[in-house]
């Protein structure tokens, strides 16, 4: 991370989101405190581990907060049958120091019947991709013996929910997503 862990950058990433339209990934984010900040590098991965630069966006240099966006053509990945693409931002200051945003998975197949969870195993948080959440949708996390340890309500009409799992004990868990009365489950490991 080139010193980012011991000397964090002053810039604050307030939000980072991704959506798919046609064969393009649309990324948008908001940042604040851009003093001495130079640019964002958008990095893409097909496996969630190995990232390559997809493009870059210069800084607006706002005194408060500024919004940014980037479109990435995924036609080749979709044609190859890939189901997910992963994105992260590399935040680079004028001195060459940098840090990374969280990784965001983007579902490419447009199908909404299956749950996708990343990363697995998890440490601090997981990103759950799911069908559009109805008003009464719920997410429960259950231990291996079926005991509920967490319950949350995803935002209405959301297709992705970020869940903090840092407080869970190490072990195997089942995540249950109930939408319009239909339960779907996926297993994950907490490290």
Q: What would you note in describing this structure?
A:
The chain is mostly beta strands. It folds into two domains: 12-106, Sandwich (Immunoglobulin-like); 111-190, Immunoglobulin-like. The chain is 3% helix and 54% strand. The protein has one helix spanning 75-79, and strands spanning 12-21, 24-32, 37-45, 52-58, 65-73, 84-93, 98-100, 104-107, 116-118, 125-129, 138-143, 148-152, 160-164, 171-179, 182-190. Strands 3, 4, 6, 7 and 8 form a five-stranded antiparallel beta sheet that branches. The protein is globular, with a radius of gyration of 18 Å. The model is unreliable at 1-6 (pLDDT under 50).
Number of helices: 1
Average pLDDT across residues?
Answer: 86
Q: Into which percentage range does the β-strand content fall?
A: over 45%
**Shape annotation:** globular
Q: Enumerate the spans where pLDDT stays under 50 for 5 or more consecutive residues.
A: 1-6
- Count of all domains: 2
Q: Mind telling me which CATH architecture of the largest domain this is?
A: Sandwich
Biggest sheet statistics: 5 strands, antiparallel
Tell me the name of the CATH class of the largest domain: Mainly Beta
Give me the secondary-structure category. mainly beta
Q: Oligomerization state of this entry?
A: single chain
Termini Cα gap? 22 Å
How many distinct beta strands?
15
Proportion of helical residues: under 10%
CATH topology label of the largest domain? Immunoglobulin-like
Radius of gyration: 18 Å
Order of helices and strands: EEEEEHEEEEEEEEEE
Please outline the helices and strands:
Elements: E1 12-21, E2 24-32, E3 37-45, E4 52-58, E5 65-73, H1 75-79, E6 84-93, E7 98-100, E8 104-107, E9 116-118, E10 125-129, E11 138-143, E12 148-152, E13 160-164, E14 171-179, E15 182-190
Antiparallel strand pairs: 1-2, 2-5, 3-4, 3-6, 6-7, 6-8, 9-10, 10-13, 11-12, 11-14, 14-15
């Amino acid at each position: 991370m080139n010193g980012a862990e011991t000397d964090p950058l002053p810039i604050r990433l307030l939000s980072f989101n991704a959506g798919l339209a046609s064969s393009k990934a649309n990324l948008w984010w908001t940042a604040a405190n851009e003093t001495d900040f130079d640019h964002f590098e958008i990095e893409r991965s097909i496996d969630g581990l190995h990232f390559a630069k997809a493009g870059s966006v210069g800084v607006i240099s706002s005194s408060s907060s500024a919004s940014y966006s980037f479109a990435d053509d995924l036609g080749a990945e979709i044609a190859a049958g890939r189901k997910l693409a992963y994105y992260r931002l590399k935040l680079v200051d004028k001195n060459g120091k940098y840090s990374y945003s969280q990784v965001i998975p983007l579902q490419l197949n447009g199908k909404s019947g299956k749950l996708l969870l990343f990363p697995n195993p998890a440490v601090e948080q997981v990103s759950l991709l799911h069908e559009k959440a109805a008003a009464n949708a719920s997410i429960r996390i259950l231990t291996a013996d079926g005991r509920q340890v967490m319950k949350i309500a995803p935002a209405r009409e959301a297709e992705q929910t970020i869940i903090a799992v840092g407080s869970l004990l190490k072990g195997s868990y089942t995540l249950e997503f109930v939408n319009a009365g239909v339960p779907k489950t996926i297993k994950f490991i907490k490290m």
